[in-house]
Amino acid sequence: MTDKDFWGGRRTIVRRILRGFSVDDTVAFFHEIGVPLHEEPGGKLFPDSNSARDVLNALLNEAERRGVTMAAGARVTDVTRQDEQSLRVVTGDADVRARHVVLATGGRSLPKSGSDGVGFDIARRLGHTIVPTTPALVPLLLKDEPAAMHRVLTGVAHEAELTLWVQNAAEIRLTGSLLWTHFGISGPLALNMSRHWIRARDAQLTVSFCPGETFDDLERWWTSRTRAHPQTSVATQLSSRLRRRSPPGSSNAPASTMPRRSRISRARIDGVCRTRW
User: Fold this and answer.
1) Which of 3, 9, 189, 202 could cross-link 15 (Cys pair, CB 3.0–4.6 Å)?
2) From CA 245, how far away is CA 108, in angstroms rounded?
């Protein structure tokens, strides 16, 4: 994991943080408190038990062992500068003075958990510049039509590549698992792309069913397959590359009955394995 794996802030800041406490340091810390980790696709680390409760209990036990005082249920309403050496944390019960304060209030996505945006207000009053917030890690809605592609593929998950185009230039390209739903697309890939899509202006999004491959790669594959299996239907040919279901509109006719290559446009072949929104 490097600073390139983080979005939404200056990479120089993330780089300094990672140098101060690296991924290896993080893995070692959790191992020491009894939570061995493993890496899953996409570089994410999860406890071997796959239990969030194990992580919470281990952190609470370690905090108790180190003598940390927990004040659960005490809502912080403000943090002010007492003087040049200390800060005052204002709560509904009593004030707390400290030399250092870490704001870890979350975003604005779940107010009932405390993530209601108050942390941004506190940071702003302390003089920090706040980047305008946008939804992140959310599914993407597609235009709802009776024959919409996502309606046909609802429930299908597969590896794909999403590309965000801004002014006809590829701004962001991500790969991962994509899940088709009745309202659009979800899964890790769509969730990771959502923040970029929401912040973009005059943008388009394309999905490739063959991530990491160029048009020329697909053209060579298609040509070799149709020559080797001329009586196999187009849908069957595609099913060897596109898992479970073919894209809507793919033909069940034998490949040998399709127009000759010279009469098929590059855009038509490209459209078989890539869709633009």
Assistant:
1) 3
2) 38
Domain co-membership, 21 together with 152? no
CA distance 192 to 56: 25
For residue 58, the enclosing domain spans 1-70
- Cβ atoms of 87 and 97 within 8 Å: the answer is yes
Residues 154, 159, 162: CA angle, nearest 5 degrees: 90
Output the six-digit token pair for 192.
């990771």
Query: Closest Cα partner for 243 from 211, 277, 212?
Result: 211
Whole-number pLDDT of residue 264: 43
CA of residue 119 relative to chain centroid, distance: 23
Number of domains in the chain: 3
Contacts of 158 (CB under 8 A, 6+ apart): 177, 178, 209, 242, 243, 244
DSSP 54-98: HHHHHHHHHHHHTTPPP-TT--EEEEEEEETTEEEEEESS--EEE
- Cα dist from 1 to 37, 44, 47, 106, whole Å: 15, 9, 17, 22
| pTM of the predicted model over 0.85 | no
Q: Are 212 and 175 in contact (CB under 8 A)?
A: yes
